[in-house]
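Archive entry. Fields below.
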Amino acid sequence: MRLSRFFMPILKENPKEAEIVSHRLMLRAGMVRQQSAGIYTWLPLGKRVLDKVTKIIREEQDRSGAIELLMPTLQSAELWQESGRYDAYGDEMLRIKDRNKRDMLYGPTNEEMITDVFRSYVKSYKDLPLNLYHIQLKFRDERRPRFGTMRSREFLMKDAYSFDLDREGAVNSYNRMFAAYLRTFSRLGLRAIPMRADTGPIGGDLSHEFIILADTGESEVFCHKDFVNFDIPGIETDFDDAEGLRAIFEKWTSVYAATSEMHDAAAFDAIPEGERLSARGIEVGHIFYFGTKYSDAMGAKVQGPDGKEHVVHMGSYGIGPTRLVPAIIEASHDENGIIWPKSVAPFDAVVINMKSGDAACDAACDTIYASLSKAGFDMLYDDTDDRAGTKFATADLIGVPVQIIAGPRAVANGEVEIKDRTTGARETMTIDAAINKLIASK
Amino acid sequence: MRLSRFFMPILKENPKEAEIVSHRLMLRAGMVRQQSAGIYTWLPLGKRVLDKVTKIIREEQDRSGAIELLMPTLQSAELWQESGRYDAYGDEMLRIKDRNKRDMLYGPTNEEMITDVFRSYVKSYKDLPLNLYHIQLKFRDERRPRFGTMRSREFLMKDAYSFDLDREGAVNSYNRMFAAYLRTFSRLGLRAIPMRADTGPIGGDLSHEFIILADTGESEVFCHKDFVNFDIPGIETDFDDAEGLRAIFEKWTSVYAATSEMHDAAAFDAIPEGERLSARGIEVGHIFYFGTKYSDAMGAKVQGPDGKEHVVHMGSYGIGPTRLVPAIIEASHDENGIIWPKSVAPFDAVVINMKSGDAACDAACDTIYASLSKAGFDMLYDDTDDRAGTKFATADLIGVPVQIIAGPRAVANGEVEIKDRTTGARETMTIDAAINKLIASK
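PREDICTED_STRUCTURE:
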């Protein structure tokens, strides 16, 4: 993408309304724009990151055997009256009347609707286990939306729902998602720690939050330092192997970890002092096993191998991509801007033409841009007539992992400079060497 | 995807509520499920087709130089009060009050919001032309939602918005989208005919609907038969070449074409009788040039090369993916079910195991499934224990382009049968030959 043709409105000044660094950087980098309180437009740069995050989530859901569908945003109140949550949900539920005065709502979550889908079609244990997910907008009318897309009202969520014949099957489905989540966050460049959690309005008796550590995190967390070195389930993980999944779950829940709500000071103090980790964290995922809470209320049953009807056991599993983007920034930035993990960077590399219009610089940049684009890189090419200093600042701000800098002096020697955004290291090499180095590192 | 692990709830009986064939087939094939009047869940099979349709639309928007962002579904009433459309829009607009009693609405279209985004950032003619698009849910509270997702209330739409300094630039942007639309529909397996259209509540003086011919179409259309043979702009189309784009526009508007609203009987009758085409059609896209209607009302101006402020000229360009899916079915089906064009088929091919559990059949199917998946095919593998007749009926119903049938007798000879869903032609060949034939045809 040539920057002269892209739409990336960089803000020169720090926006006053931003209380946390990710919100400030997302506004400054032209990633998002607030349209109303807690309601955002994802501008092109932000949309690219959001898409990459979503793609990784989808790939890991698919790998685990979950099946994608797409439920609508608007739901009928009747479904929620069946489960008993319509009255219980409170002011965070956006209630709507359509032109025929029917009571509708903008879905804050989808347990009711997926249970309705399930009970319409699935009648036999032979069709279980089943895990259905979608990636869809939700709305929660927060009293105080803030922190940009970290706590917005309209937000994107991946929510999966598992259906099993009994508790044992449901716990296996839970372990499957547990492993998928570890893989997902790791691929997003995050170390997420699963912490036993309260189940809140979703219900149930087994639940974990996945928390990443960040100084600016919203909640206080306590855990054993060992988490930092635990192995992430590899690409070879067999999601059909119940024992293997259970081993992963047990390993990752073998040492202490809790948010402040679930904190047990005595248990934490029992850990040797040097191995305790007390920090701030950001919740990036939440999984629940809630048994038959919805299937009972809504009559979601299957015929078992015994010929009798069984109420199915369910779980739900959420990750918020629009929340993950700022969470990644909180975990990865410096004073000059964002530092994207490779996997979610809006572009793989940026070519900076320090003297647009100079025939040699233009030719060098054109060659690099064309060669790397052809090799499958998502390239940004800063071909604008901004000053070099502005171009450097923009490249640092938007956090693209690699900068390829073509200035007139280096280009006269057939050379360019490569800068690594994470380390700041710069290296001068020939144009061909630069192209080859990037291709080799892919 | 193994069918035993997929979620594809086939209906055996014809659903009574479906008035048109696409609605009937989408319900029977388990592509969609109605949740409330005019509000649908896209089940996994439907979601796959919807994604393929959306991907083609996105690729052609990107190719034409349009830039993707994502605006939210909920909008503030204030924006629409600025443009004057808040009161004018009528009952189709879903009006909402949030917990703070602020007036919101579920966007039926986004002219106001994109104009607001534009005016916040773009100040100079140097940033023009600009075309911003998104693919997002919309809601129109139709009095009588019907025909499944053909006329639903919550629907997906690709809407693009162009910004230019003057009318000449805007007409070039219009021509650019015109060519992109011809390419898009062609890649979707459709022949769409652009017809001069009324601008309705969007406004403006230049507008075309893209109509595909289908016996079950909602509107009567009249055109010259030549359209059937006009060339589609190729992959080499230069979207920076204003003259070339104009030539495409002129060619495709050189002969008579009109919907009944814009029909001029005298002009139509002037066409030699053998060259007249009078048929039913389905609108699959609509493009508008509406000048300064919104930019005037909302103050979207840029500084021109003359140093003065200019109100920008705008256009908008819509395609509805959730409407396109049934439109494609209307145009391509037979008495046994859907016949997907290759480009949007939910799977590229289906392997039908006529005797699951038979070692030789299982081995043959496993080989074919693994080889073709590895070669990049989106494969479905019917590994269920349904009767062969049921499997054939399902494969025909869901319309996958190629069926590879492995029965015990053929497999004993190392052979399978390949059936082309479109022609019904069957051919027996060795397993290797079948794999190679598919790979060669990709």
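CURATOR_NOTE: Chain B touches chain A through 52 residues (CB under 8 Å).
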